[in-house]
Amino acid sequence: MKRHEWLQDLSREHHLALRLALAGASALVERTLNEHDEMRRLAARLNEADTAILERFGELPGAHVRFEERELFEATQALSEPAAPAGGDNSTP
């Protein structure tokens, strides 16, 4: 189904979250979506000049990227890799 351009990123995020949740990684999904929501809320409030908001906005993106690289993407990659053939390595005769 062709999605409107502004829905495409959200659709990809939802698809990944669904795949991970079905694979038993619901805690990773919950954290990812919660942090994405928090970053959107913080970004919407940056003009308030509240130091707590500015500090959190300065910290969260870097921490979130590290989480995604170290945990979320590892889980996603594990889902995307083909299963090893039964009986071990069949690459040698």
Question: What do these coordinates show?
Answer:
The structure is a single chain. This protein has 93 residues and is an all-alpha fold. The protein has a domain at 31-79. It has three helices and no strands. It has helices at residues 5-22, 26-44, 51-80. The radius of gyration is 18 Å and the shape is elongated.
SSE topology sketch:
Layout: H1 5-22, H2 26-44, H3 51-80
Shape: elongated
User: Averaged pLDDT, please?
Assistant: 79
Number of helices: 3
DSSP, total strands? 0
The Cα radius of gyration reads: 18 Å
Structural class: mainly alpha
Tell me about the biggest sheet?
Answer: none
What percent of the residues sit in helical stretches (DSSP H or I)? over 70%
Identify low-pLDDT runs: none
> Gap between N and C termini, in Å?
45 Å
Instruction: List SSEs in N-to-C order.
Output: HHH
> Approximately how much beta-strand content do the residues carry?
under 5%
